[in-house]
Amino acid sequence: MKGRSIVLLFVVVYWACEPISERKQPVPSLYQLSQMDLNLDGEKLAELYCGNCHLMPDPSILDKKTWEESVLPDMRMRMGLYLEEDIGITLPKDRGVPPGIYSDIPLIQKDNWEKLRDYYLSHAPDFPLPQNEKVAPEMGISGFEEIIPAFDFVYPDLTTMIHVDSSSRIWLGHRSKKLFHLDVSEKPTLLDSLNTGIAPVSLSLRGSSFEVLSMGLMDPSNDSLGNVVRFDPKEGEWKTEIIQEKLMRPVHVSWGDLNGDGLQDRVIAQFGNHLGKLSVFFGGEGEKEELVLKALPGARKTELVDWDGDGDLDIIGMMTQAAEGIFLWENQGEGRFFERTLLEFQPAFGSSDFQLVDMNEDGKLDLILVNGDNADQSQILKNYHGVRIFKNLGNNEFEESWFYPMYGASGVEVADFDQDGDLDIVAISFFPDKRQMPKEDLIYFENKGENQFKPYLPSIQFDTNYLILSKGDVDADGDLDILVGSFDFNDLYKGPSEKWQPIIILRNNILN
């Protein structure tokens, strides 16, 4: 046993001294590390301990206070090390945290923890770092008219989904277990109202029928109340059938035929909280059987595309919550998928949304990504939040080719909105800097060519929170309009007092 410990210690020292890009040995487990007498400095300890779960974060990503009072204490307790300063705090199990998230035994020795902690506190900035210099957005988006339709009744503005159908009508999900069918082409009109689970977030239309994914709970939770429900019109009413249930706070579903049997399969991102997963449910007789692709919380979104050109659909997915990144699940046939990492991010990166499009017309799909989730342990302004283009170099390699800082960036859409032959970008922020004037919670980026984009803000600043971003031709004039879903916290906590205004429309008048 002693000989094994000596060998393992040699591996640890060798691993810690090698550059990250050149390491071949796997990282020793936290338990193995806790049993060794490690003679390493704080930085090397951080590489070992942080690298067990995610990319090692640089101290500069957060200010000293946030490290000291929030992130580092939580990390320490997750590793099972409790100190005198923790007396009187609510233990994880008393907060409803599932077993296994916080260790029952210490996985780091106290002296090693102190060196790791001191490394972060001595290298962190006193205050959050400012954004890099950027082109200031101009007011007013040429060719667009800002409209906020008001319906003739009072109801809370708590939009959770927007889907524009082929008839230019809008399907709108609402936190309060509702799905609305709307027509805003002239006078705002409510066409239909259906009861659903809490917070509908995805919809797929199939002729006169459709399926809806509902979260079950919007607030952080480990409960499994989400579901997929099919709606069929029968004798003037909607008949419902539960297709999937007991989902862990699902936030997105992709529909497509993954196994070539002619049936629609579902890839469901079960974001969860402390627990979560990314799952495939194949259509047909076994459609309630689950294939788990990744058993971690934070699954945010997927796209189905034949990535490797072999004739079947592969899965590109975004994972958030610590082990952040963009991943490829390569379809191997017969219900098997091989996981590859395309991009990895540090745990406070805040990945929120992405689109797959060919930005430079080289025949390869690039990644347009926004990061700005700011609702966890470090709720400060982050200079690395914003909008990015990752150029596809081929062979599953990407490089960042463009970045625009945008605090709290949370949603992105890409299209040739101005119909000049290239792709423009629009992004929203759910966590903007409220002190910025004018607010930068919606920015339109006009593509000027050669990877240059000119930013614009709406000429009207709306007093609400932007949760949802979508696109579609709502006035049937042949161009794409931009739709933003309003989520008003005053309506949530105090109740509504004004007419219902659930969406903001940037109406595209480029063809008028």
UniProtKB/TrEMBL annotation:
InterPro entries per the UniProt record, alphabetical: FG-GAP, Integrin_alpha_N
Source organism, top-level taxon: Bacteria
Keywords, alphabetical: Signal
Pfam families per the UniProt record, alphabetical: FG-GAP_3 (PF13517)
Name this protein carries in UniProt: VCBS repeat domain protein
Organism name: Algoriphagus marincola HL-49
Lineage summary: Bacteria, Pseudomonadati, Bacteroidota, Cytophagia, Cytophagales
